[in-house]
Amino acid sequence: MPTLSPTQLLELHDKLRIEARRLYEDGLNPVDQNADWRQALTEARMMISEALRASDFLFDVSGALQQSGRHMLVFRFLMAPPVSQDQFKLICSDWPKSTEKTGAAVKAEKADIVTSTFQSWLALRLAPWLRTKRRPAMRELNSLLKAVAPLIASQRVATARRNRLAHIQEVSLIEKLESNGWQLLPTRTIDQQGALLPHQFMHKARFASGLTGRAEVDIALGLKEGVVLAMECKVTNDETNSVKRINDVLKKAEAWRSHWGNFVQPAALLEGVIKFGDVKRLLDGNVAVFWSHRLDLFEDWLTQRMS
To answer: Which of 171, 151, 156, 68 is nearest to 114 (CA)?
Structure first.
């Protein structure tokens, strides 16, 4: 990539951003969309089945949460009406919201409080066996699955598409690096300078950030003079999702730069629908920006850095 002024660089990335959006829109075909929907529906059914088993078919919701907070996603969709994470947090301030994402166990006292709130909002129509305190019939379980799985899947289908495209994105980058003579190393924690020599890289490495922090980086590349290029690969479905994904990149970049100083160069490989303001935020944060559909520009940048 030629040396550009800040204004020229922003104009170039705006052009590439528009191209990326157009390519994403062109890829919205019914075949792939249907495949994403089927995948999301299958995952939703599995999550519901796991939550039902863990909670002894909703007789022990607290016990399920003490195993894993991830089950709360299913329980929220069994409420009347189903509620978002933020909405449930409003009606149950004691709920440790982060446990739904991490899957961490909820402490017994908190789990009991969450269960009490859940039970008061539970749609008993979905679980009629609770009224008579009996084991559910198979037809009742099937009815619950048919009613709730599409609700969860509709929230997760965008994630299914993003994950599929992200896998393709990362594989394409790895293949490009290897074709240019870069050596893929086994994944490990990068916790000291010089862990990656020039022309070496790792996929999904743990990257030290602070005394105890270990943030995963999608691709870590060894540059000259001990510098590591820490690249996050981000696919976004829409401009709202763009804000969240770019926030993730900036948060990691700040942590890495605080720990490593000038020995780390944060970067983002972008694909999909990205807001212009989010690209500007990355550039203002000294994050190198590249695009999946123009890996040739990334190759040029690497050649310049390694020469």
So the answer is: 68
Instruction: Identify whether the C-beta of residue 48 lies closer than 8 Å to the C-beta of residue 149.
Output: yes
| Paired tokens of 240 | 């709202």
Please tell me the distance from the alpha carbon of residue 171 to that of residue 233, in angstroms, as a whole number: 11
Residue 94 CA to residue 102 CA, distance in Å, equals: 17
- CA torsion, points 161, 162, 165, 169, in degrees to nearest 10? -170
CA atoms of 152 and 79, how far apart (whole Å): 12
Find out whether 263 and 226 touch, Cβ atoms under 8 Å.
Answer: yes
How confident is the model over 167-225, as pLDDT tens digits? 999 999 999 999 999 999 999 888 888 789 999 999 999 887 765 567 889 999 999 99
**Both tokens of residue 105?**
């166990």
Contact 174, 203 (CB under 8 A): yes
Q: Is the dihedral of CA 287, 185, 227, 193 positive or negative?
A: positive
Name the phi and psi angles at 24, rounded to 5: -65, -45
CA neighbor of 231 nearest in space, from 213, 205, 259, 212: 205
**Helices of type H across the chain:** 6-26, 30-54, 61-67, 72-77, 85-91, 98-102, 108-121, 138-179, 239-260, 276-284, 295-306
Q: Write down the residue that tokens 């790895």 correspond to.
A: 174
Q: 3-class DSSP state for residue 58?
A: coil
Count of residues in the chain: 307
Q: Please name which of 155, 156, 161 lies closest in space to residue 272, comparing C-alpha atoms.
A: 161
- pLDDT tens, residue by residue, 23-51: 999 988 898 889 889 999 999 999 999 99
Q: Residue 43 corresponds to which tokens in the numbers above?
A: 């995952």
User: What pTM was estimated for this model as a whole?
Assistant: 0.79
Residue 200 parent element (H or E): strand 200-208
Q: How many beta carbons lie within 10 A of that of residue 247, not counting itself?
A: 12
User: What is the C-alpha to C-alpha distance for residues 245 and 181, in angstroms, rounded to an integer?
Assistant: 30
